[in-house]
Amino acid sequence: MIRRLNWADLPLGAPVVPVGELSLHRSLTSGLCRRPGDPSGVFWGVGDRGPNIKPHDAARRYGLTALEPLAVLDGAKIMVAPEIGPALARFRLDGNCVVLEARFLLHAPDGTPINGLPPAEQRGAETEAVFAIDGSPLPTSVHGADCEGVALAPGGRFWVAEEYGPSLLLVDDQGVVLRRVVPQGSEGRFAGSAVPISASLPVIACKRRLNRGFEALAFDPVRNVIYAAFQSPLAHPDKAAHDAGDLVRIWALNPDDLTFLREYAYPLDPPARFARDSAAGQVVPGDVKISEMAVLPDGSLIVLERVTLSTHLYRVMPGKPVPARFIDPDHRPTLEQVGQAGCGDHRIAMLTKQRIVSSDDHPEICGDLEGLLVLEGGDLLLANDSDYGTEGAATQFWRISV
């Protein structure tokens, strides 16, 4: 059984554009999770950096033709309303309806808002180019975060995954960011932050591709482990390795201090397997990504793998980890260079995938799915990332019995 649940987005205003209507609303479903002890039906979500759109799409959709030249810049985004940053949300299921109970803007302990601007660039760590709606460049920020995943942390708090650092934020249930954990050697990008910085993640995380950092988080309370997935193969040792890559790293971390434990190799589907996207145009390996994970009671993971229109849900059981040498950024060949075809030669065990459901078989389900939750009773709750309505999409929730 598949059904769409009732929901109404929270409006944020309508910036004036030359053509069409740009109507913004709050986006809160880049990641979803549940918290033990909460009332039945209550769950949590997190929204990403704020309303943004690619320069070419802004020119085509809204007549902002002056932005078109910015499209040649790698990873460039137009921040339509840079004053709008990420937020934590508490939802409640009420029959066939989803109700927003509370929304908390992320902020430092001293009240400094967390915004959606990227941190400064440093050697070995790229930074996205961001611009205002008039085409003027926007500054970097030590308080910027592009939040994409959320999972339970000790003490009823949350770990939030974000793409820029990439980093993991420890957040309480009022939206206070208590700590930011970043890759070793990258703490200088956040110097002066009102959020305490801890540089303990493996340095290889800095090899994330632009807009493809930490994307999915899941907490296994029985085995006391946090799983963190990158959105795509790392650009390691270079962008070409990402573009051709077909293995994504999933890390197992200690949930208390995010100490690295081990990593797993998740094999991405070939582009042609995403039928709805392939029918709409060419799909290349770099289009395929992981957007969300959830833990099942037996310790296996549900992984949400997608392009845009097509979403596949797979069950994988964490087993033999990737050999430890591949976490060393100086090791060659890298995991990304090895790829699926070379795993046998390098004695790398890939995760074995069991398909649960595919939106290619259910065309009524919308695209851009990013939120995933296992409900009480075993049903799945899916939600799309509406991108704050910048391209006309609305948030949709789907309940699936499998």
Number of domains: 1
| Structural class category | mainly beta
Quantity of strands, as a count: 26
What is the N-to-C succession of helices and strands?
EEEEEEHEEEEEEEEEEEHEEHEEEHEEEE
With helices defined by DSSP (H or I, 4 residues minimum), what is the helix count? 4
Q: Can you list the strand order of the major beta sheet?
A: 11-12-13-14-15
Distance between the termini: 7 Å
- Specify Rg, calculated over alpha carbons: 20 Å
Give the CATH architecture: 5 Propeller
Kindly report the average pLDDT value: 97
The proportion of strand residues reads 25-35%
| Fraction in helix | under 10%
**CATH level 3 topology:** Tachylectin-2, Chain A
CATH class: Mainly Beta
User: What spatial form do the alpha-carbon principal axes imply?
Assistant: globular
Question: Which runs of at least 5 residues are low in confidence (pLDDT < 50)?
Answer: none
Largest sheet: 5 strands, mixed
